[in-house]
Design brief:
With 135 residues, the chain is mainly alpha-helical. Helix content is 58%, strand content 7%. It folds into 2 domains: 68 residues, Winged helix-like DNA-binding domain superfamily/Winged helix DNA-binding domain (Arc Repressor Mutant, subunit A), CATH 1.10.10; 46 residues. The N terminus is likely disordered.
């Protein structure tokens, strides 16, 4: 019998990684949505299926889904399942943009405190972007 379950491109989820397990799941689902791999209306796995796939508890997946639902990225329909919201891409991308802006601000602040000049800070940013393009 063929396995019809769709596999998401998320994982691994690890207690050793930064952030709570549910947050790791939510962040990876946001990435899948913001990068267009999960389209509006796409069906997400059930709590139990995703929990089995990621080797975490159903409660952990439920908490990740609840967070995404509060943010308007996904929605649930009783008896039908969980789906990517029509504006899930925009909301997910906006959340990622906000995080990126916070990280850039923190990095610029750290670099300035280390005595780097604005041109040197920009060069660091350009290098990081070039390195990301190579991976």
């Amino acid at each position: 019998m063929p396995n019809d379950r769709k596999s998401l491109l998320i994982g691994p989820i690890s207690p050793a990684a930064d952030g709570a397990l549910y947050q790791q799941i939510a962040d990876q689902l946001k990435r899948e949505i913001s990068e267009g791999r999960l389209k509006p209306g796409a069906t997400l796995p059930s709590f139990r299926t995703l929990a089995e796939d990621l080797l975490v508890s159903v409660i952990t997946v439920k908490r990740a889904y609840e967070e995404l639902e509060r943010e308007g990225i996904i929605y649930r329909r009783q008896g039908l399942g969980t789906f990517v919201a029509d504006h899930g891409y925009d909301r997910s991308r906006e959340a990622k943009l906000n995080t990126a802006q916070e990280l850039f601000r923190a990095a610029a602040r750290e670099a300035a405190e280390a005595g780097l000049k604005p041109a040197e800070i920009l060069e660091l940013a350009h290098q990081a972007i070039k390195e990301k393009g190579k991976s």
